Task: inverse folding
C-alpha cells in the first residue's frame, strides 16, 4: 500500500470511529439537557414520564404492572427484543394493561466497535418483535447503558424510532439500592417535564435490585402528585422536538 493510500485508509478509519463515538457524548446529563432537551426526554411542564428498562421479565415485571394499576399510573417499558420473544405473554399483558412498549435493543450489549449493519438489523428485529407479538407499534428507542453511537442513531432513524434517554435516574441497579436511596437519587434531578429511568428487571443489574425500585414507586408517584405533576408514559409527554400523538 502506498503512503497516500495508507493515509486515506487511516483518515477513513478515523472518520468512522469519530462518527461512532461522538454521539455517545450525549450520555453526559448536563450536555444532554442543555443541548438536546428532546433526547433528555424533557416535555410538558406539568408531567413526568415514567419509564422502565430491561424487561419483559416474568419474575418481576408482573409486580410492576400490579403496582402501577394500584397507583392508576401508566408507563413506558423499554424492552429487549429477545426477551419479548422469550416471554410474549408478559409483553402482551403489559400492553393490555395500558402501558406503552418501546425498544431497548435486541440484547443488553455495549457498542465497543462500529457495526452499523448489526445495529440496523438489531433494531429492526426488535421493533418487529414488539409489533408482531403485541400488535403495538413502538415509537421510542433507548440504547442499553444510554450509549447512543452513530450506528445506533442511524439504525433508530431507519426503524422509525425516536431516541429518548432520561433526565433523572434512581441508580436502582446497584446492590445497595433501597427504596429510600432510589427516591433520594431521583430527587436530585427530577423536575417538571422530566423523564425518569428505572428498571423492572435485574437482568443487567444486581440480583434482586428491582425490589427496591418496586418499593420506591408509591413514594415517587406521591411526590410528583404533591408537586402538581401528573405521571404517565412518553406518548403524551410532548417530548421536545419529537412531536407527539
Result:
Amino acid at each position: 500500500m502506498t503512503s497516500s493510500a495508507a493515509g486515506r485508509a487511516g483518515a477513513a478509519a478515523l472518520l468512522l470511529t469519530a462518527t461512532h463515538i461522538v454521539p455517545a457524548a450525549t450520555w453526559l446529563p448536563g450536555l444532554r439537557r442543555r443541548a438536546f432537551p428532546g433526547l433528555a426526554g424533557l416535555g410538558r411542564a406539568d408531567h413526568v414520564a415514567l419509564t422502565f428498562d430491561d424487561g419483559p421479565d416474568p419474575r418481576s415485571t408482573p409486580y410492576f404492572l400490579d403496582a402501577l394499576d394500584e397507583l392508576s399510573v401508566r408507563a413506558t417499558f423499554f424492552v429487549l427484543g429477545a426477551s419479548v420473544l422469550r416471554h410474549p405473554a408478559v409483553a402482551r399483558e403489559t400492553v393490555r394493561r395500558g402501558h406503552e412498549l418501546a425498544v431497548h435493543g435486541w440484547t443488553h450489549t455495549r457498542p465497543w466497535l462500529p457495526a452499523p449493519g448489526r445495529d440496523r438489523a438489531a433494531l429492526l428485529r426488535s421493533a418487529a418483535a414488539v409489533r408482531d407479538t403485541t400488535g403495538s407499534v413502538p415509537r421510542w428507542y433507548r440504547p442499553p447503558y444510554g450509549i447512543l453511537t452513530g450506528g445506533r442513531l442511524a439504525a433508530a432513524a431507519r426503524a422509525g424510532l425516536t431516541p429518548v434517554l432520561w433526565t433523572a435516574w434512581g441508580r436502582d441497579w446497584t446492590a445497595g439500592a433501597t427504596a429510600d436511596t432510589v427516591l433520594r437519587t431521583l430527587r436530585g434531578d427530577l423536575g417538571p417535564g422530566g423523564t425518569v429511568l428505572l428498571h423492572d428487571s435485574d437482568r443487567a443489574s444486581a440480583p434482586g435490585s428491582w425490589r427496591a425500585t418496586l418499593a420506591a414507586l408509591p413514594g415517587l408517584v406521591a411526590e410528583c402528585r404533591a408537586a402538581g405533576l401528573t405521571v404517565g408514559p412518553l406518548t403524551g409527554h410532548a417530548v421536545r422536538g419529537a412531536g407527539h400523538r
About this structure: The two ends are 54 Å apart (CA to CA). Confidence is low (pLDDT under 50) at residues 5-20.
